[in-house]
Design a protein that fits this description.
Strand content: 35-45%
Distance between the termini: 53 Å
Low-confidence stretches: none
Shape: elongated
Radius of gyration: 21 Å
Structural class: alpha+beta
Strand order of the largest sheet: 2-1-6-5-4-3
Oligomer: single chain
Number of strands: 6
Mean pLDDT: 86
């Protein structure tokens, strides 16, 4: 094996001459790519479920022991059914919404191939009390492969801003 400068690299071996593993195998790398795509689809499904107020689909997003909380303390539910009930109550507050995710960072647990953590940056446009609002959100997630699919084990959210669109500085476009 050679490095980027063309120098020969000797693979380390143990005392018996058996080569030691330097990094993830090709199979492990492909699995991480597939898992990353599946987690991205989970995040996208969450947005659609929330926008569509699809109560029946909420359960499919979360593990049985899931927790959803907000940094401001308004939301805090433990267990899949409690999460569903919390969202049912939350759906009565805002009008139509449009939730978009932007960047995300997903890190896999090297000790547990069925666990990962993530940070998701998002924004939502919604109506509240007849007023259009734009909010920036950060999600702190724990993902768990459960029943053969990636699901949220924990989803924490914090609002970086929550501003009526009528209060934007003049000259900004929507």
């Amino acid at each position: 094996t050679q490095d980027c400068a063309g120098r020969v690299i000797r693979r380390p071996s143990n005392r018996r001459g058996v080569r030691m593993k330097l990094g993830p195998t090709l199979e492990e790398r492909v699995r991480h790519l597939e898992d990353r795509v599946a987690i991205g689809e989970l995040i996208a499904r969450y947005c659609l479920v929330m926008d569509n107020r699809d109560v029946d689909a909420i359960e499919s997003l979360f593990t049985p022991d899931a927790r959803v909380w907000s940094a401001d303390g308004v939301m805090d539910a433990q267990g899949r059914q409690a999460v569903v009930e919390m969202f049912m109550g939350r759906f009565t507050v805002p009008g139509p919404s449009n939730l978009f995710t932007h960047d995300r960072i997903v890190e896999f647990d090297h000790m547990d191939p069925d666990r990962a953590t993530g940070l998701v940056l998002a924004h939502v446009g919604m109506q509240r009390n007849g007023q259009q609002i734009l909010a920036a959100i950060r999600y702190q997630d724990v993902y768990q492969r459960c029943e053969g699919r990636w699901r949220f084990r924990e989803r924490g959210l914090s609002f970086a801003s929550n501003v009526p669109t009528s209060q934007r500085p003049s000259g900004e476009s929507t």
